[in-house]
Design brief:
By secondary structure, this protein is an alpha+beta fold. The protein has 16 helices and 28 strands.
Length: about 600
Amino acid sequence: MSRRLSRPSSAASHRSSGSSAHDSEFKVECKAAYLSVYDDLKDVISSEYDLSAVLQQSGRNPTRKILAKYWTDETDYLTFDDFVNICRREHATTTDDLMKAFRKIDINGDGYISLDELFRMLTTRGEKMTRDEVQCMIDEVDENRDGKLDYGERILYYSEFCNMLMSTTDECKKMSMKMMEKKERKKKRPSNTPRRADGQGPSHSLRSDDMPRPSPRVKKDKVRTPVGSRSAKVSEPSNLRDWTHTSSKGCFFIDADEGGQIISHQYTLDLADDTNVFITMQPNRIGDAGFTDDGPVDTAIYVLREGSSSNKIVTFTEQRDSKGRYCVRCDLSAGRYKLVPFTTGCRLYERSAGRETKEVKLIKQDKEDKIVLSKTFKKALEDIFDMADLDGNGLLSREDFNWYNIRTSGEEVADDEWDVVEGNIELERGEITKTGFIHLNQMEAEDNDGDTDDLWVTLTSMGFNKSLVLNQACPFKLDVYTEDCRDASLEVMGLEAQAVMLEDAVCETVTAKGEVSKVKGMKDLSVYTYIGDARATVVVENQSYSKIRIQLDCSRSKNVVSNQRDLNYTLTVPSNTTVVGHHLIPRDEKAEWIVRCQESILR
């Protein structure tokens, strides 16, 4: 049973004003705030992060202490009624609250907030902003055009500072009301979603138009024309320049510590409005990491809607456009989405298996016996810098450096560690330059008296082999364009194994759209084959009460490479589960490829 927020006493929940009209308005505001984050009042708050987000939508600014009071170690979820009770207990942010906060920001106590003071706060706490964004915010509310925000007794209530933040709160509430009204209108429209035979709900969370259609089911060989010879099915919108654009870089890594699994950066996309979306993803050329002689490493983005109980797949980028980018165009309603990168790993595993030459030298000593970095090592560090620069601005912010540190050491950058960075290396606008990043590694080599073990940990974690070839990683670039939503936020949220995040989603897409065949003599065992433009996937569904071992022999296929070590692959499928057997892509994208898969049960 889920542990929920305990109900308040009648005294605690009693309306302070005693006015039914006031209470009705209060409940409408709570409802609007809730529906700005969730699709339905029946959806539950499933994390402390979401609790903070929905409270902020209601005009509250919860501290860590307040969040900890309502989201304890025993809390599994909170309902809408719980949320309303919390809003009764925690008042919305007031002018007095803002003035107290203002004085904390005003470090030198001169009655003004300078750009530097505001920049220091807004770029180190919460959702970090850039210096240009902070300047734009000041310009918008700086009524006397002095480049500062003022306060004091003479303008205690009508200060620029309070006007700015209180107007932001009001705008947030207006947007929440607008979004609620839009969702309620949308619910009244007739739904064209296909229903299951029992009439209890949609047959799949994916509609038929959400994904590329597979090749028609035929008994003859599944022959696919060369990838490069096909005309693009997805085209870039003609007015794309007018759309809101946000982007991020990221990387796939083959992680030896995770048994050779592929891990990658994960993202959240927040949309304030319903909008048409165009998403593209492609390998990012750093050296030749994402490319082989036969073609680029395949990439895709799965779009999952964050829900009350599970993440529901919406669509994914399967087709390529004329520029070679994997892309998808669709309508998305306002809300939060997970964007999970995916690659079959076929070419990435092939690259990682390449032969290594002798181990290169990372450091040497100059004529004065000082430790210096070799040219080859410096070049590798420049590549690592470009991989870690996720926002692509040519600098490493603390956030960028933090993700790099998590990848190479498994730990976040502590404040004292960042103080060392700020005090010893070259920074620009508070961010690490490429020269400063190389100097940081120079310092590490000197501190270790020439021992390169820690340096090699960094290199191998970032995908380099002993020859300093980037063969166990694939950098990529993700772009999101929104037509009707000017407030779209794309944020890096983690580094995780894609198998954990995407196994169910991949299986769902294949069983929803793939060609199904029953295994002879096994009524509860089905094999699904989905063939897209540049990828085929074979999935096994076991609905029996016992596990089975099945052999999937794709060795008679032509011009294909698999993510498995052998095209003739045997896997164990537990009872009542669905698992991926093979991912197949054309070895040579310029040539025709044929998929043949023969299954047999092993007793």
